[in-house]
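FORM 7B: Structural annotation worksheet

SECTION A. Query
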Amino acid sequence: MENIEHKQVEVKGLKLHVAEIGSVANKGYRAIDFDFRGYGLSDQLAEPELATFQDLIDDGVGLLDSLAINKGERKQILGGRFDAKTVIRDIYTLFWRSEVPVAGENQEIMDLFDPSTPLPPWFSEQDLSAYASLYEKSGFRYGLQVPYRTLSVYIGITDPKVTAPALLIMGEKDYCLNFPGMEEYIKSGTVKHLVPDLDITFLEEGSHFVHEQLPEKVNDLIITLIYKHSV
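SECTION B. Predicted structure
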């Protein structure tokens, strides 16, 4: 992409990689995308095993503070034994399906990977190489710690609610909808108990990676939400 501005912004002693550009920016808004700590070109934590969800909140708020964006302008914050390229290929070939195979006893999910399986049509070998290069640098340690190993860690919030306008975009073929109770929780609107001002949109052909699979539709939905809540 052209005209992407890359920079490093220091937040709580760590340098976060930030990029500004995109469809939202082209509509007259300031679009900020960044690598969370431990991902991509951002710094690693000294002790990744101590990371929690609170770190993700701190990264987002700290970044906006560092960029001198006041609260009135803050619309949204957008989400081992194998080499990195093999792991990324495995993730994209397995998890873009609506049904994900389950590893049996004495198996790991990587054991189910078939190297002959083609990549999804919207994910190229060039994409794969770029992702693998970044994960070769960052590793997977932090990504496995947050969120997967910290779901039950208490971070001091007793009544969590997101009161800002929010948008949930999911693919109808997202394998996460097969998790017990997940589809009912979202489609019944129960999730709005935690996020009252939430718009929910399902894209019929979308998978778990809907933002990469259908970027134009996702961008249009984001821009529509921003217009809807523009002052």
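SECTION C. Observations
The chain has eight helices and five strands. The two ends are 30 Å apart (CA to CA).

SECTION D. Sign-off
Analyst initials: ____
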